[in-house]
Amino acid sequence: MNSQSATAPAQGAEAMIKMAGVEKWYGEFKALTDINLSVRQGEKIVLCGPSGSGKSTLIRCINHLEPYQKGEIRVGGTVLSDDSRIIDAIRREVGMVFQHFNLFPHLTVLENCMLAPMRSLRASKAQAEATARRLLGRVKIAEQAEKYPAQLSGGQQQRVAIARALCMQPKVMLFDEPTSALDPEMVKEVLDTMTGLAEEGMTMICVTHEMGFARQVADRVIFMASGAIVEEAPPAEFFTKPRHERTRQFLGEILRKH
Amino acid sequence: MNYKLDFTPVLDGLPSLLTACLGTLFLSLCGMALAIVIGIGGVVLRDSRIKQLRWLVMAFVELIRNTPFLVQIYFIYFALPLLGVRLDPTPTAIIALGINGGAYAIEIIRGGVQSISKGQIEAGLALGLHKAQVFRLIVLRPALRAIFPSLTSQFVLLTLTTSVASAISAYELTSVAQRIESDSFRSFEVYGTVTLFYLVISWLMMRFFGLISGRYFSYPVK
Ligand SMILES: Nc1ncnc2c1ncn2[C@@H]1O[C@H](COP(=O)(O)OP(=O)(O)OP(=O)(O)O)[C@@H](O)[C@H]1O
Ligand SMILES: [Mg+2]
């Protein structure tokens, strides 16, 4: 018993996210096949795989941006259903960062960060502003608070997007290729922000092909292909001893590129 | 060319022509306000989940855009009393202008809404906002910005269309002009002056929309 809990420290704790037998179709096309995934509180997962393998679809099911047809998803013990109150409750606890930032162009950086806390959590203006300024400071962009998104660089915009999601005080953060729309010189500032967040104990699922980040931050790397989870392992094992041919092939391609 | 210009009747009628301009502005602004409400409401219903509502909006747009405004205003003026609703010419004109402008506004604003990327909507939903909040707080302003030049032209057109309300003797510039003209027979002078007035009113409207645009839609975009 003891030795077992030493190798799997938080096994007893309730999973933060639990996907069981999840299947998803886009019409006739099956995008996810029998997804089983359990993420403990504080765990960092990196999700990778070739284009079209279903990575985005998987994380978008967690906050119900995509409905799924079979299986069960639990977030913090709540079973995700089509009930809009449940969906809203889960979305308040799950932050998401997108490839293309999706900041609201008509609102300043500060207003971007205050909107949802005020409208969704019913925070007071003063409260929302204090939280927003604190988190903008944390992503090192406090001095840009009064600017509009179009006046920022891509890296700055993505850091604002991270701060905006954090303003909801989420329990989980989902990242969908947060650095792949960025110029190379801006990738680091965003990855550093994410690494900082990971060090503070945030539960994270990151779709990314930044393998350096995966090595340094991930507790587990998951490889997907054709809508299914093919392989999952801690990064040391994943990168040195991949078990499946498709994983080896994928790693070969991705590491050659970088 | 034996015609002798005589502006005396116009000059005598100038005070009533100028106040009639206020009538025209009043009809225009009220008509626009109604049109914008119908336009935005129509867009929401046009893409609602309820099929019957979608059809209703589409039928409304088709009906209004494919029939003459003069007939619409007559219909409202003469048909509503049969249903027991009796309205004065001015409120009738405002309703007709609002309905007519609203039908065009639905199509224009809908184009703006469709130009907003899905990512914007998803970002709002992912932050826990409801669909209605996403529309109101995230989609609407950038959508209106995208189509504001078209909306401005449509509303300048609405302003000029107020002259058709003279057919039911609503209080506005053209009907006052008609009265002065029929009393004096100085058609050229009267309608020449009124043409100039309409030009100024259109120009004022464009300025007005320019100010709104500067106030609400001047945020920078890439
Ligand atoms: N809205 C949709 N309608 C139909 N098919 C879709 C839709 N969204 C995604 N798909 C399909 O589902 C599959 C998985 O897509 P998904 O976006 O999850 O892949 P991904 O792993 O995130 O790829 P990428 O690395 O290119 O982002 C793809 O084959 C894609 O074409
Ligand atoms: Mg993707």
Which spans of chain B of ≥5 residues are poorly predicted at pLDDT below 50? none
- Residue windows where pLDDT falls under 50 for at least 5 positions of chain A: 1-12
Report helical residue fraction of chain A. Answer: 40-55%
Describe the largest sheet of chain A. 6 strands, mixed
The most extensive contact between chains is:
A-B, 28 and 22 residues
Summed up, the helix count of chain B is 8
What amount of the residues of chain B lies in strands?
A: under 5%
Q: Care to count the β-strands of chain B?
A: 0
Q: What is the string of SSEs of chain B from the N terminus onward?
A: HHHHHHHH
Secondary structure class of chain B reads: mainly alpha
Distance between the termini of chain B: 59 Å
Helical amount of chain B: over 70%
Instruction: Give the termini separation of chain A.
Output: 42 Å
**Shape verdict of chain B:** globular
| Alpha-beta content class of chain A | alpha/beta
As a percent range, the share of strand residues of chain A is 15-25%
Concise overview:
Chain A has 258 residues and is an alpha/beta fold.
List keywords for this structure.
heterodimer, A: 258 residues, alpha/beta, 6-stranded mixed β-sheet, 4-stranded antiparallel β-sheet, 10 helices, 10 strands, globular, disordered N terminus, B: 222 residues, mainly alpha, MetI-like fold, 78% helix, 0% strand, binds adenosine-5'-triphosphate, binds magnesium ion
